[in-house]
Amino acid sequence: MHVLGIETSCDETGIAIYTDNGLLTHQLYSQATTHAAYGGVVPELASRDHIRKLAPMVRTMLAEQNLGAAQIDGIAYTAGPGLAGALLVGAAFARSLAWAWNKPAIGVHHMEGHLLAPLLEAEAPDFPFIALLVSGGHTQLMQVADIGRYTLLGESVDDAAGEAFDKTAKLLGLGYPGGPALAELATRGDPHRFRFPRPMTDRPGLDMSFSGLKTAAVTTWRSQPEDLSPEADAQLRADIARAFEDAVVDTLWIKCCRALQQTNCKRLVLSGGVSANQRLRQAVTGYMASRGGQAFYPRPEFCTDNGAMIAHAGWHRLSAGEHTPLHFPVRPRWPMEELVPGSA
Ligand code: KG4
Ligand code: ZN
């Protein structure tokens, strides 16, 4: 079976073909430069750019692979969560193609795409596992018994970790998207100059909070003299970036440790954009090795949004005999726990 996957939930147009033998090909177009001038994603511009890019990208991919409608067995698209307009572009395109080609279509949950992305790698986790989903819109700890069998253990009660990275990066005068830029700046920061809190780690439970860390960064910034030399100012920004990153990383892995202990599980999966963060990966890998467990991640390009994870999740669901009826709307908000295993 060949599944064409289409991702348009935010500011990347991602397409891919996943087959019974694994991932055949994938392509990504990032709109980052379009939105950079505005300091964040402008939904209307995102939708328009998806419209411009999708058809030519799919046409080129099929031609390059020497594939036509006859060889595509199903079409997977991101049905939510995400920006309503951007989702609608991908859904309308995918559904039209499926209708014209007389193929089944499947609306994929974007976070299920992220959650299963580590299965795209040669070293893939077996079920069950604990998943930390950390992206720009979500920070959730999930107990994963199998595909479609997800139990939410804890989540951020305010900002997602990626959102906190982006907002703090903006404060420090870094461009959009802020996460990678802040992480890069933090490499030059002194880890001992400032210490930010590890929110909600002093009480039991698996919920998290990141908006206070952004406030800690603002407060620290404002408490410094305004007439710093350019060098001192640059060092101050780097030291704040480091204190912020250390606090997010510590908080995330403290919560991961708790989830693993609570469920007596030895496999941890990290995915979503923030799982590309090197310091987080190092902290988690070290801890998992020390307790005889194992950590799994997608390769960095599949941590952030991409078409491969949608084609892959769609392939699982279509293989299980599922398909999405034509009248299914997109779901800008869509709790992952509403998902159920495939019906075959
Ligand atoms: O999964 P993703 O591409 O999109 C959503 O579904 O939200 O995640 C994007 C988020 C952004 O907030 C971005 O700043 C963050 O992931 N991010 C990072 C890194 N790379 C991307 N945050 C920290 N360190 C990174 N290296
Ligand atoms: Zn995402």
Mean pLDDT rating = 96
Distance between the termini: 16 Å
Structural class: alpha/beta
Oligomeric nature of the chains: single chain
The count of β-strands is 10
N-to-C order of helices and strands: EEEHHEHEHEEEHHHHEHEHH
Give the count of structural domains.
2
Main CATH class of the largest domain: Alpha Beta
Q: What's the architecture of the largest domain, going by CATH? A: 2-Layer Sandwich
The value of Rg in angstroms is 21 Å
Helix count, DSSP H or I runs of 4 or more residues: 11
The proportion of residues forming helix, as a percent range, comes to: 40-55%
Report what the structure shows.
By secondary structure, this protein is α/β, with parallel strands linked by helices. The chain folds into 2 domains: 147 residues, Nucleotidyltransferase, domain 5 (2-Layer Sandwich), CATH 3.30.420; 174 residues, ATPase, nucleotide binding domain (Nucleotidyltransferase, domain 5, 2-Layer Sandwich). The strands form 2 sheets. A 5-stranded mixed beta sheet has the order 3-2-1-4-5, with helices on both faces. The chain is globular, with a radius of gyration of 21 Å. The site of 5'-O-[(R)-(carboxyoxy)(hydroxy)phosphoryl]adenosine (KG4) has 20 residues, from helix 5 and helix 6.
Concise structural overview:
The chain is of the alpha/beta class. It has 11 helices and 10 strands. It has 2 domains: 3-115 and 305-338, ATPase, nucleotide binding domain (Nucleotidyltransferase, domain 5); 124-297, ATPase, nucleotide binding domain (Nucleotidyltransferase, domain 5, 2-Layer Sandwich).
